[in-house]
Write a structure and sequence with these properties.
Elements: H1 2-16, E1 31-34, E2 37-44, H2 47-68, H3 76-82, H4 84-89, E3 91-98, E4 101-109, H5 113-117
Antiparallel strand pairs: 1-2, 2-4, 3-4
Length: 120
């Protein structure tokens, strides 16, 4: 009887000591790192396509924020011109290969970027 109880307990303790750390995971979030830095997580077939997707996602996020804030500056063409420099200077901070493509974290930086997002 003692062996029947001891074996499952022993097995439980051995399994509970195993590590559950997962490596090569990218952050799930998209958003603000600080007032000057905004990041997005996107995927693409290639690195170039992922960067294009990231830039498009950032522009969409800016338009969404401005619409929610009832800004009069919601024209995506003008917003693209306004954010041209930060988007061109944007960089990939992390990347991981996934089946069928690549997953990246792309960030843009500019002074008072958060305030520029919310321009009234």
């Amino acid at each position: 009887m003692m062996k029947i109880i001891c074996f499952p307990l022993f097995l439980f303790f051995i399994l509970s000591c195993s590590s559950s750390t997962v490596t090569n995971k990218l952050p799930q979030s998209t958003g603000w790192i600080d007032n000057d830095t905004y990041m997005v997580r996107v995927s693409g077939d290639t690195e170039q396509k992922a960067v294009e997707n990231a830039k498009h996602r950032i522009l969409k996020d800016i338009v969404d924020v401005r619409i929610r804030n009832k800004s009069r500056y919601t024209d995506i063409v003008k917003i693209k011109e306004e954010f041209d420099l930060p988007l061109r200077r944007g960089s990939i901070t992390k990347k991981i290969m996934i089946p069928g493509g690549i997953d990246i974290i792309f960030q843009i930086r500019d002074t008072n970027l958060r305030n520029k997002f919310m321009k009234q």
